[in-house]
């Protein structure tokens, strides 16, 4: 299946690996693009030099197109221009809606993807020049911008804009991809499923919890895990941190039980505090299960560890089979 989305991105399969802060490294991005999908890499946490280095690492692994993911709250013109200077094909902008950043990226010659949570935002982004709209449903893992479910969001966004729409949130297998295409999406943006990829840079205990989790094992909070990114709603696996916080009245930052406790350490020795927004990485120590274990409601479809390339192929082949013959039960 080729589509307008594939020709805009220069890929063969309309499946984009979602940027997963702390979990997506250059290996995952390159592997997805090499498999015919479209890889993204989040590079918004370390300034312009970090952007340049991250891009060079992906380019050293694959000549195929990919997108750099930038958070509109923490990055701006300099990061966008660094992407254009390095010859990157696309940027994916998320968290906030800044038409001026979309316009800067377009003027610099980049293909622009913008993540939104409702149809009104989609229209603003498209009017500012976005080439593709990523509509992120509330089921999604990690930081979640809107509060509309994927099922309600995709048709509303598709009807609001004339550019292709990419469906995100709860898409973990071929059946969900087929459903998103039926709702009018031109492609899908898959996050939680790639946490179980061999390339994901996450702690083995976190990966195992993803494999073991069911659809009822995640929770959405307006503000729980923070640190230097405040008031940013998110979805993660239930754990002791979240249930104790909720049982004790869901108090705001500054009044939460055990706030400031050191619950572990990163591989470089830096402490991990309770309620810190931190994706547990290999080499982290301590109470991994009490950390921010980002995951979406599609986690119940994540059952095995695979190479990223296999995940791309399997979801796509199963989706095409569903469209031809109807959906089957999983596995
Ligand atoms: C571990 C993790 C980290 C994430 N980090 C980012 C990020 O840095 N930038 C971004 O745009 N979205 C981020 N997200 C959201 C994903 O890009 C995507 O919207 C979401 O995973 C899609 O829903 P799904 O998890 O149900 O597939 C993250 C999600 C997860 C699970």
CATH class of the largest domain: Alpha Beta
User: What would you report as the Rg, rounded to the nearest angstrom?
Assistant: 19 Å
User: Approximately what portion of the residues adopt beta-strand conformation?
Assistant: 15-25%
Number of strands: 14
Report the oligomer. single chain
General form: globular
- Are any ligands bound, and if so which? flavin mononucleotide
Unreliable spans: none
Alpha plus pi helix count: 12
**Largest sheet features:** 8 strands, parallel
Compute the average pLDDT: 96
CATH architecture assignment of the largest domain? Alpha-Beta Barrel
Total count of domains: 2
Overall helicity: 25-40%
SSE order in H/E notation? Answer: HEHEHEHEHEHEEHEHEHHEEHEEEH
If strands are numbered along the chain, what order do they take across the biggest sheet?
1-9-8-6-5-4-3-2
Return the CATH topology of the largest domain.
TIM Barrel
Keywords:
331 residues, alpha/beta, TIM Barrel, 2 domains, eight-stranded parallel sheet, three-stranded antiparallel sheet, 12 helices, 14 strands, 35% helix, 17% strand, binds flavin mononucleotide
